[in-house]
Amino acid sequence: MAVINGLNTDELVRVVEAVKQKWEMGKTVWKASTDWKGGFQVQTCSREFTLKVDEPEMLCGTNMAANPVEMVLQAYGACLTIGFAMNAAVRGIKLNAIHIDLEGEIDLPGFLGLEPPESLHMDKLPGYKTVRANIRIDSPADKKTLQELHDHVMRTSPVGITLSRPVKLESRLEV
């Protein structure tokens, strides 16, 4: 068993080959649920994992947990980190460390249903306009190899691709 970056590369290659042999295996469904806990506190669950969500005090929350837009940044950073670790491992690239700092700007008037003054050049849409990721990798690999790895990970990040294009959202209210 070849282990690179803490990952069993033989198993990773086996998964890739299994999907190649039976493409239907690649079509997956992921699920989550949320429950309101009062105020701005929410409990989210996926599989057997639970996270808390809240808003910062500046938005009248209790600052007990990250808010949803921070979790979007966290999800994107985690997805990129996993992408770097996995793709480096299957390419035989040893990594010592991966650190990603993320930031994005959101204009609150859109979320609050307000019309900002034109002079402020704020967007009326309540979401990120740009998300920036500063990726630092410590590796004995050369810069060209790491740049190729970076380019591949950026092209194949499921969270990154989801953020970069329109996604059809559907909802149904049950009372």
Task: State the main characteristics.
GMP Synthetase, Chain A, domain 3; about 180 residues; two-stranded antiparallel ribbon; about 35% helix; about 20% strand; 5 helices; alpha+beta; three-stranded antiparallel β-sheet; single chain
Query: So how many helices?
Result: 5
**So what's the overall shape?**
globular
Proportion in β-strands: 15-25%
Q: Spans with pLDDT under 50 lasting ≥5 residues?
A: none
Return the CATH architecture of the domain at 3-8 and 67-164. 2-Layer Sandwich
Radius of gyration: 20 Å
Structural class of the helix and strand makeup?
alpha+beta
Number of separate strands = 7
Would you tell me which CATH topology of the domain at 3-8 and 67-164 applies?
GMP Synthetase, Chain A, domain 3
The chain-level mean pLDDT equals 93
Q: Span between N and C termini?
A: 53 Å
Q: Strands of the biggest beta sheet: in what spatial order?
A: 3-4-5
CATH superfamily of the domain at 3-8 and 67-164: K homology (KH) domain
Determine the fraction of residues in helical runs and give it as a percent range: 25-40%
Biggest sheet statistics: 3 strands, antiparallel
Order of helices and strands: EEHEEEHEHEHH
CATH class of the domain at 3-8 and 67-164 equals Alpha Beta
Describe this structure in words.
Helices cover 35% and strands 19% of the residues. The chain has helices at 9-21, 68-90, 108-112, 143-156, 158-164, and strands spanning 3-4, 7-8, 33-36, 42-46, 49-53, 97-104, 131-138. The model has no long low-confidence stretch (mean pLDDT 93). The chain has a domain at 3-8 and 67-164: GMP Synthetase, Chain A, domain 3 (2-Layer Sandwich). α2 (68-90) packs across α4 and α2 (68-90) packs across α5.
